[in-house]
Q: What sequence folds into this?
């Protein structure tokens, strides 16, 4: 007669292969489906960063148990722990700005420890083609964190490029400039033809290349405090007066000026050496 004996390999601890936590530490109860109840809150590991994972090996868990004189059996070879996160994504930013036609330069998503946050855009600053938004994260009606998100808006425009190869230290003339239609450009690319003409190449610029603030040096035409010739059109006649420059200026720049006769402050476009055109 044959007798079959069913041997069950009873484990003290059964590891779960994939778990998600929402705390700074990982406890035994987080990673096991079966465990001694008195060990439920035994710390096993620090939790990973939000939206990241860590792998807890069975051998590592056994070493913790053994170091505490607990000879318990463990089933399963590992547990992969993921930290639950609140994710700030491209959709989050677009919805807050009510703007879809943007290209976000800041790496997304941004992962925060999971919680119930409120988000608001505190400010927007523009630097060339780039803009920065200050995104304020609120928790329990208090500022939890301020994040700065860099983005640029898509454009449908023509920007100046080198028509032919330009030598280092060559002064760029209008004959050296062509145009290329682009959807967007980085902030270091010069988008105004007036800002390119008269500038000096700081290195060899290949034909078809963008002019940038790194490969060109613009000629400063006006310094702060300069007395400038200010021209404006009145009834079809060009009228000249004089003003004091309140800002430095390169060709094409719009600067603040103070009229010498009235002390009134106005805006003017730089058109030449110590020459401006009043914007009325």
A:
């Amino acid at each position: 007669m044959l007798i079959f004996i069913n041997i069950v390999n009873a484990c003290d601890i059964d590891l779960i292969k994939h778990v998600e936590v929402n705390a700074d530490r990982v406890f035994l109860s987080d990673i096991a489906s079966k465990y001694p109840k008195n060990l439920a809150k035994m710390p096993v590991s620090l939790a990973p960063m939000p939206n990241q994972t860590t792998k807890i090996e069975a051998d590592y868990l056994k070493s913790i148990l053994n170091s505490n004189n607990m000879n318990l059996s463990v089933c399963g070879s590992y547990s992969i722990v993921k930290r639950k996160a609140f994710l700030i994504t491209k959709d989050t930013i677009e919805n807050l700005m009510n703007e879809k036609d943007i290209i976000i330069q800041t790496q997304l998503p941004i992962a925060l420890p999971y919680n119930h946050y409120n988000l608001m855009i505190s400010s927007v600053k523009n630097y060339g083609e780039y803009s920065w938004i200050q995104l304020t994260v609120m928790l329990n009606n208090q500022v939890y964190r301020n994040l700065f998100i860099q983005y640029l808006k898509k454009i449908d425009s023509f920007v100046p490029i080198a028509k032919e190869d330009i030598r280092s230290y060559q002064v760029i003339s209008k004959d050296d400039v062509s145009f290329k239609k682009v959807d967007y450009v980085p902030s270091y690319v010069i988008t105004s033809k007036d800002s390119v003409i008269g500038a000096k190449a700081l290195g060899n610029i290949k034909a078809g290349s963008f002019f940038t603030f790194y490969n060109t040096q613009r000629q400063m035409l006006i310094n702060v405090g300069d007395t400038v010739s200010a021209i404006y059109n009145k009834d079809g006649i060009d009228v000249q007066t004089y003003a004091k420059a309140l800002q430095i200026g390169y060709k094409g720049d719009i600067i603040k000026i103070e009229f010498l006769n009235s002390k009134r402050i106005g805006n003017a476009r730089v058109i030449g050496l110590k020459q401006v055109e009043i914007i009325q």
In short: The longest helix spans residues 58-67. The longest strand covers residues 142-153. The chain has four domains: 13-83, 86-153, 157-217, 220-278.
